[in-house]
Amino acid sequence: MAKKKYWQQFPIYQIYPRSFCDSNGDGIGDLQGIISKLDYIRDLGVKMIWLNPVYKSPLDDMGYDVADYKSIHPDYGSMEDMDLLIQEARKRDIRIIMDLVVNHTSDEHEWFIKSKDKNSPYHDYYYWRKGKNNNTEPPNNWTSMFTGPAWEYVPEVGEWYLHLYSKKQPDLDWHNPKVLEEVESIITFWLDKGVYGFRCDVINQIYKESLEDSKTHAMSGRGMEFYLMKEGNHKILKAIYEDIFSKREDAVMIGETFNVDKENGLRFLNEHEFDMFFIFDHMYIDKSYNPFWPRRFKAKKFMDIIYQWQLEMPWMANYLENHDQRRSVTRFGDGIHNEEVAKLLGLLNLTLRGTPFVYQGEEIGMTDLPYYEMREQCKDVAVLYILDIAKRLHFPNRFALKFVNQFNRDHARTPMQWDESKNGGFSSAETTWLPVNPNYQTLNAKAQEKEGSVLDFYRKLIAYRNGSKTLQEGSFKPLKFKGNLFGFIRECEGERLLSILNFGKKNVKMPAEYLKGETIISNYPDGGDTLRPYEARLIKLS
Ligand code: NOJ
C-alpha cells in the first residue's frame, strides 16, 4: 500500500502572520515572531503551518493583493527570515504551506503597471475592455465580491479592468498562456525553497468563460455563472499538476473553492487538481443578507451539512474558523459555556475524516472582539466598502454596524493572546495594528498551561489523533439522534471510535448502547449517563 502522505496524517495550523507574534515592537506580527513560537506550535502537535500571504503588497486586502510573489513584505521581515523559518520549522518536523493568490494581483504589481500600456505584452495579462455606451459604463453588469461594480475605468488607458475583489485587486486573464507560465514559475520558486505546498486562494474562479451580462440578481458576486468552476478552470489546474506536482510527490495542493458543489469537489480530488479543498456551506449557516433579519445558528443544519460532505467526499479539508470567519466559539456557542464549546468544536474538527485545520487562537478558544462601535477601528476592506455604501444611502449607522458585525473579518484577525502582559504578549508597541481583544488578561496561552484548559485539550487530542490510524484513515458513519445530540463513528481494522457531542445547553441522556466504551477524552472531568451542556466525548467502543 502507498505510504500515507504527511497531509493525510497530521493537522495543519493556520497562521495569520500580521497577528501572530511581533518580534520588533512595531505592532505588527512578523516572521521572526513566528520562529520564536515554533516550539509552541510543535508542542501543539501540528505538523504543517499554512501561512497567510507574507509577500510584498500594499495591503489593501491584507496581503491578498500581491505586488511581488517572490519577495517578502518588509513588515514581516526578509527573504532570509523566510528561509530561516522554513529551516527551523523542518527541524521540528513542521512543513510550511504558502498562500497562492493568483486570481488577481495587486494594482501595484509590475505586470499591472506595465499592462496600462496597450502595446505592452502585459496588457493581455488582465481583462482590459472598452465599456458600454461609448465607454461610459462598465463592460458588463458584474459585481465585485466586496460589493459595487467589478470594473474600474482608467482614463489614461481609456479602458476598464475587471476586479472581482477590491479595485486594487485586478483579475488576471487566464486565457493568456503567459499567466500560467508565470504562476508555474512562482510555484516552482517556492517549492525549490523547501515549502511543502500551497493553499490556493479563490482558485475556482480564475477562468472567466465569457464576459456577458449576468442574469442573476445576487447582492454581490453577480456574474458567477460565467466564472465559477468552469471547464477551463479544471484544465488549468490539471496543467499545473502535470507540469509540476506529478513530478513532486511530497507536496500538497489545497483549494479554497468558493461555493464549491459536490460534483466539482469530486473532480478536484479524482482528477488530481487538489489534494483537498475547503467548502463554504457550513460557514453560511448563520449569515443573513438582510440587515433587519439576523439568522440564528442551528446545530442540526450545521451538522447535516458537515455530514453530507463527509459522506460524499473521500477526503475533506476540515475547518471551523479562519481569517475570513468570525471566531467559532462566539458564533456557534451560547456565550456562557465558552470553554466547553471550544473543546466540543475542537473534538468535532479533529475527529472528522480529512485534514483538520486549526486557526491560530482557536486552540485557546479565542473569541470575537466586543461589538464594533467605531468605523475607525475597522480594517477589513470588505466591510469598509459596505459601510461606505450604507453611508451614501443614509442607512442608519447603528444598523449598518450591526449588519457588518456578523461577517467582519477583523474579529478573527485580532492579535494572538499569549499572556497577561501588555498587548497580550503579542507586541511591545504602544498600539497594535488591530486592537487586542480586551479579554486577553484571562484568556491567553500562558494561563492555559495547565491541566483541563482548552489548550491542554487540544494538545492531548492532537497527540492521540497523530497516533490513531482510526482517526486518520477510518471510515465515517453518522448516527441519528434527536435534538442537539450528534454522533459519528470512525472505524478501521475493527477499532471503532465514537465522537458524541451535545451541541446545546440542555442536559441530554447518553444513549445506553454507547455507555460501555472507554472515554479517551472529554470536556467534562467525569463521565456518566448524562451529557451536560456542550459536553463532548471521544469514546473507544468495545
Ligand atoms: C479569500 C481570502 O481568504 C480572503 O481573505 C481574500 O479577501 C479573498 N480571497 C480575495 O483574495
- The radius of gyration is 23 Å
Within the largest sheet, what's the order of strands? 11-10-9-5-2-1-13-12
List the bound ligands.
1-deoxynojirimycin
Structural class: alpha/beta
Written overview of the protein:
The protein is an alpha/beta fold and 542 residues long. Helix content is 28%, strand content 16%. The chain contains 17 helices and 20 strands. The chain has helices at 6-9, 31-36, 38-44, 79-91, 110-115, 132-135, 177-192, 231-243, 262-270, 299-312, 328-332, 338-351, 381-392, 397-405, 410-413, 454-466, 469-473, and strands at residues 12-15, 48-51, 55-56, 68-72, 95-100, 128-129, 151-154, 159-162, 197-200, 252-256, 276-278, 317-318, 355-359, 475-479, 485-492, 495-502, 508-509, 518-522, 530-531, 536-540. The longest helix is centred in the middle third of the chain and has 16 residues, at 177-192. The chain is globular, with a radius of gyration of 23 Å. The protein starts with 5 loop residues before the first helix and ends with a strand. 1-deoxynojirimycin is lined by residues 61, 64, 101, 165, 201-202, 256, 323-324.
